[in-house]
Amino acid sequence: MAGFFMQLGLQKGARSLYERLLEALENKYKEEYSTIVYHHRHYTYKRQCVHLEVLEVIIQLGLVCRSLGELDDARKYLYDVISRMNKIRTPAQKLQLVKALLGLGSVLRLQEKAEEAKKYLKRAQEIATDILGKNHHYVAAIVGQIGELSYGQGRLEDGLIHHLWDMQLTQNEVGLSHPRVGAILNNIALVYDDRNDKLAGDLFKGVLKILVQAFGQNHVDVAIVRFNLGAFLFANNLYERARYQFDEALRIFQLFLGDDHPETKSTTEALEKLKNFSK
Q: Cβ distance 278 to 238 under 8 Å?
């Protein structure tokens, strides 16, 4: 049910459900599935549950908190789950570790801790490549995250190379109309936009079509692309068209994320700036 809430963009409801599920699963499995975890900051040891279901719920909690913009909580959950994975043997366990490393890397990137984020992303890539091979779409997704990190550091060409690699491998697996392909195209469009290339607008429109077909109009991922398209239109003096995209993005962000979320605030600020350029 919590996963269903996440797919709908209902992040707060998903967090509440995952928290209750975590408590129930830890009570169920803590006696039979546990390990001793060392806390490097407090210099203490603590027995923690390491059942696969428990670890998965903690990872999902971290990802939900990331989506809500509660980055300190997200980092806490993901550090916690990685510290519990101190006896990794099977491929399933290793891939679960990769998932946690990716989540933590993405959180650190959002907290502008680029070098620390790269360390976790590179480690995830190494483990996933060892298990799945370098041409697997999951490995490609990790390459895409490294591309996002490069983009955030202003290394546009490096970011574009990573995203194009991700695109090639992913579309071979899932086709061109999959939401994952839409996410990659959005990243590519951001690079072209920063290079002042008009192709960015067409790419954002293509991404929007893919995501609306997959999720419907009322989804956070759709709102993010609408914001990006609005910013492109704004920069190209198409003010009324930009306003429409920003208005739609703001409506969705307020609906699912609330007024205090960074995405909501950014969109509100964009609309305020737009007032100076349109009637």
A: no
The string of pLDDT tens digits covering residues 191-234 is 999 999 999 999 999 999 999 999 999 999 999 999 999 999 99
- Mean pLDDT of all residues belonging to the chain: 89
Distance in angstroms (rounded) separating the CA atoms of residues 144 and 5: 25
Give the pLDDT confidence of 161-194 residue by residue, as tens digits: 999 989 988 888 888 899 999 999 999 999 999 9
C-alpha 11/C-alpha 25 separation (Å) is 21
Rounded Cα gap, residues 225 and 211, in angstroms: 9
pLDDT-derived band at 43 (thresholds 50, 70, 90) equals low
C-alpha to C-alpha distances, 69 to 13, 107, 130, 181, 257, nearest whole angstrom: 15, 9, 32, 24, 9
Given a contact cutoff of 8 angstroms between Cβ atoms, the answer to whether 251 and 258 are in contact is no
